[in-house]
Amino acid sequence: MGVVKLVVELKPHHPVYVPGQVLKGEVSMVVMNSVTCREIRVNVFGGGYVMWKRGSGKRTITYISREYFMNLGVKVWQSSGIYTYPFTFRFANPLPSSVEGMHGYVRYEVKAVVDRVRAFNTTTSLPFTVNSIVDLNSLISVSRKPIRKEADQTTCCLFCTSGPIHLTLEAARTGYVPGEEIVVYGQVANHSNSVIKYSELSLVQQLTYHCKKRSKVELQTLHREYRPEVRPGGRQDWSGVKILVPPVPPSYLPWCQIIDIKHYLVLSAKLGLCRNVMLSAEVLIGNVPLPNTLEEEGVVGGGGGGRQVGSVIIPRPDLCPAPLTWQVVMGVGGDEEIDPHRLQEPARVMPRYTYGCYSTYKSSSKSSSQAAPVRMMLKRNSGNKSYSPRYITYNTSNYSHGDVTFA
């Protein structure tokens, strides 16, 4: 029966990793009888992939782009038994953060391959999350800048022109980290002849996918608040509305050329059939906070120890959750060459953050040639594994120890 089970385990397993960190783990193999192997190898790699389509039928145009960030490998090199092979890798620095979108992603995984003689290769893989460190203190001129936006927009319904709708939007600063609350002040003044059915304040994440000279934009609403209708001549105040920043990748997705991320506060007035009125202001999301901002929200002190990253403490790894292993029973696949033109789109689902979205990481038990180990990760193949990026989040409401949690 040969190799019946192959398991990759990270020891210790951290919820997230940062560029430059050391990744350690073990590959365990269960063998029922003697197996002849060329080698047993472990690869750690990361890459980005975007794909979208325009048009329909014969006029359909597909846009695709790939980017590779890391590809490290080591040979860990039999009668029946259980074998364990340790491995160690040091991440490149810098690296972009993990991210999942509707039309693209940045993913990292460790993959073990048993290269067998005259038999199908046996493979298994384990994805993990990388968080690049974006220190708001290194962008202090932007992070500390207050948000003050206002606009007058005239509504137009069919052939009728009405008066303006005045929108204002304010916040104390531009830079925040996940777990912080954005305190927003705004106003909707209806000087038109139309009824504003409702107004909406939202935090929006914009992902822009790039392929050659083309781009595609995807909008994800992270948080949303509503207010009731505003009659003509009426006014509606948004006074001290708190929007909690959820666990999300940092703005701009540094060091990735094919995906760009921006975050916006958006105040909009909905007028039904007439044109909606909207005012937006960009916010900067990092993962190292400005000094004193967390103290102002009640996050101070803390035991547990840790290491310094920027101006805050990243908690000790031994305080993080227990290791998570993914175990795959093998026995299928073949030694076919991976076709780089046989392209698959990313899973059309959202990452699972603490506010309840989910993503699916598609993997495969099929073997690949040694010449193209990364291409397997940059495609959606048969098989199924749950993959949800996790991001550094600051606990400002239920603080116990350490400054940082992982959501």
What structural category characterises the helix and strand content? mainly beta
Strand content: over 45%
The overall strand count is: 24
Assign the CATH topology of the largest domain: Immunoglobulin-like
Q: Rg, please? A: 25 Å
Protein name: Arrestin C-terminal-like domain-containing protein
Family: Belongs to the arrestin family.
Organism: Petrolisthes manimaculis
InterPro entries: Arrestin-like_C, Arrestin-like_N, Arrestin_C-like, Arrestin_domain-protein, Ig_E-set
Description:
The protein has 3 helices and 24 strands. With 407 residues, it is mostly beta strands. It has 2 domains: 239 residues, Sandwich (Immunoglobulin-like), CATH 2.60.40; 151 residues, Immunoglobulin-like. Strands 3, 4, 6, 7 and 8 form a 5-stranded antiparallel β-sheet that branches. Strands 11-17-16-13-14 form a 5-stranded mixed β-sheet. Strands 5-2-1-20 form a 4-stranded antiparallel β-sheet, with no helix packed on it. Strand 9 and strand 10 form a beta hairpin. The longest helix is centred in the last third of the chain and has 5 residues. The protein is elongated, with a radius of gyration of 25 Å. The two termini are 41 Å apart. The C terminus is likely disordered. InterPro entries: Arrestin-like_C, Arrestin-like_N, Arrestin_C-like, Arrestin_domain-protein, Ig_E-set. This is Arrestin C-terminal-like domain-containing protein. It comes from Petrolisthes manimaculis. Belongs to the arrestin family.
